[in-house]
Amino acid sequence: MSVTIEIDGLERLQGKLKTVESGQYLRAVLQAATLDIKGYMAWYPPSSSANDPAQRRWYERGFGPRWRRQDGTINGYHTSEMLDRKWAVARPRIDTRGLTARVGVKVSYAPYVQSAKEQAWFHRARGWRTDEDAVRERGPHIIRQVQAAVRQILEHEATMSTYGALETLLKRLH
Predict the structure, then answer these.
(1) How many domains does the chain have?
(2) Which segments of the chain have a pLDDT < 70?
(3) Which positions ≥6 away from 154 have C-beta within 8 Å?
(4) Which one in 64, 90, 107, 148 has a CA-CA gap of 20 to 30 Å to 113?
């Protein structure tokens, strides 16, 4: 499962990238964008009654389903794949095919928890964020950041230093 935000017109920028520093700066902006999405998607909603061990059956985050037997002992299956910890980003690529920044998760049950198309009703009811939520909530911010970076590259291509550009980016993101 992955999250996709497309920004039109970036292909035209590639021909204007005259320095290695400009490519590095744009890559850093895309890296910041992927980390933003990763952080958004790795968030867990507050625990609910489904996570309450006072019930006979519950789900223990980081472990899996648990249940209390009639004799009072607790049993369960260790099935958790640690969804929050498995969100990952790939290093952004700039090549002849365009600009690519990927965020994804390799957890077998992720689509049923965080895909807007496949999310189970009980995960939706408990407030789990979806891929479409990420695009809706974080997309406009990311697009503004990329547009600002593109403007900065085009306006200051000849003199831009990577260090100064990255420092500016980091200030904007905090």
Answers:
(1) 1
(2) 3-21, 96-98, 156-170, 173-174
(3) 13, 16
(4) 90
Range of the domain at 6: 2-45+82-173
Q: What is the dihedral of CA 7, 105, 28, 45, to 10 degrees?
A: 90
The pLDDT, as a whole number, for residue 11 is 61
- Tell the residue number behind the tokens 């744009």, with chain if given: 26
pTM for this prediction: 0.79
Q: Is 16 helix (H, G, I), strand (E, B) or coil?
A: coil
Domain assignment of residue 66, yes or no: no
DSSP letters, 71-115, are TS-EEE------HHHHEEEPPPEEETTEEE--EEE--TTHHHHH-
- State which amino acid sits at residue 84: D
